[in-house]
Amino acid sequence: MTAPAPRKAPRPRADALRNRERIVTAAREMFVEHGPDVPLDEIARRAGVGNATVYRNFPDRDALVREVVCSVMDRTVEAAELALAETGDAFAALERFVHAAADERISALCPMVSSTFDQNHPDLVASRESVERLVEEIMGRAKAAGQLRPDVGVGDLLIVVSQLSRPPAGTDCMRGDRFVHRHLQLFLDGLRAPARSVLPGEAVDIRELLDS
């Protein structure tokens, strides 16, 4: 007798996947607005689901925070892949990536990584390595074209994106948004080659972004 073929694991229902996405989206918005300690029932209310649905998808706060951070990193990866797919001006592709990354609110999420769960969780490490590799490639293309100063690294870029996309002290996210892309463009203009000065110190490692 032949052994019966193993049964395939059932695929999640479409409505279950939609609920999960709604929870992650609502959590991301509320973490940005209020920080990682926002009550989970408030997240459920914004997502339009019951508390039980939240806990069915995410057994604890750490699991939800991790999913939000990884989803933001994955969206940043998608923005980087779109930039790499462009065949035109290499620095213009870098600019578009930087503005897209700022819209993901990395600045609001990074402190949650160090304070809420293990930085070395496999999901986070995989997302971080993908971002680092792709941004290095985007920057390398602009450097090879002679458009980007050679003394900046991936960490330098992402730390400045993080800092400039953070609302100024005493203002909320919505009021701060009007300044973000204006100040980012000023920063990007300073990255163009030839450089007008020598940068002190060494290029920053991306891990320092997550430790800050």
From TrEMBL:
<dbReference type="InterPro" id="IPR036271">
    <property type="entry name" value="Tet_transcr_reg_TetR-rel_C_sf"/>
</dbReference>
<dbReference type="InterPro" id="IPR050109">
    <property type="entry name" value="HTH-type_TetR-like_transc_reg"/>
</dbReference>
<dbReference type="Pfam" id="PF00440">
    <property type="entry name" value="TetR_N"/>
</dbReference>
<feature type="domain" description="HTH tetR-type">
    <location>
        <begin position="17"/>
        <end position="76"/>
    </location>
</feature>
<dbReference type="InterPro" id="IPR009057">
    <property type="entry name" value="Homeodomain-like_sf"/>
</dbReference>
<dbReference type="InterPro" id="IPR049445">
    <property type="entry name" value="TetR_SbtR-like_C"/>
</dbReference>
<protein>
    <submittedName>
        <fullName>TetR/AcrR family transcriptional regulator</fullName>
    </submittedName>
</protein>
<dbReference type="InterPro" id="IPR001647">
    <property type="entry name" value="HTH_TetR"/>
</dbReference>
<dbReference type="Pfam" id="PF21597">
    <property type="entry name" value="TetR_C_43"/>
</dbReference>
<keyword id="KW-0805">Transcription regulation</keyword>
<keyword id="KW-0238">DNA-binding</keyword>
<feature type="DNA-binding region" description="H-T-H motif">
    <location>
        <begin position="39"/>
        <end position="58"/>
    </location>
</feature>
<keyword id="KW-0804">Transcription</keyword>
